[in-house]
Design a protein that fits this description.
76% helix
C-alpha cells in the first residue's frame, strides 16, 4: 500500500518509477517465500531480499526528507530509451500480475 503513496512522487522520474516496480517484484518474492508458495525456500535468501527492501525504504525516506517542500515534482528530462524501458517494464509487471491472478483462480 505504500507504493500507492510513492507513485505520484515517482511519476516525473522514470528511473524511480522503474525502481518502484522492481521493489514490487522483490516484495512479491519475499511474500511468496514467507507463505511457502515459492520454489525458493531459503531463509537466507528471504532475509537478504528483506534487507534489500529495508535499504530501499530508507532510500525513499531520505528522498522524501530532502524534498519536504515537494520541490521534486518537476519532470526530469528523459531520453527515449529510458521511456521505452519503463514502458516495457510496466507491461511486464502487468503481465506477471495477470498471470499470477489466473494461476490463483485455476488452483
Amino acid at each position: 500500500m505504500i507504493f500507492s503513496l510513492l507513485i505520484p512522487l515517482a511519476l516525473p522520474h522514470p528511473k524511480q518509477l522503474v525502481g518502484l516496480g522492481f521493489a514490487g517484484f522483490l516484495l512479491i518474492a519475499v511474500h511468496r517465500i514467507w507463505r511457502d508458495t515459492s520454489a525458493i525456500q531459503s531463509p537466507v535468501v528471504q532475509l537478504l531480499l528483506a534487507f534489500v527492501m529495508w535499504l530501499y525504504w530508507i532510500n525513499w525516506a531520505l528522498i522524501i526528507f530532502k524534498n519536504r517542500k515537494h520541490t521534486f515534482s518537476t519532470a526530469e528530462p528523459c531520453n527515449p530509451t529510458t521511456l521505452l524501458a519503463v514502458s516495457w517494464f510496466t507491461v511486464l509487471c502487468f503481465a506477471y500480475y495477470l498471470a499470477y491472478v489466473i494461476h490463483i483462480f485455476i488452483r
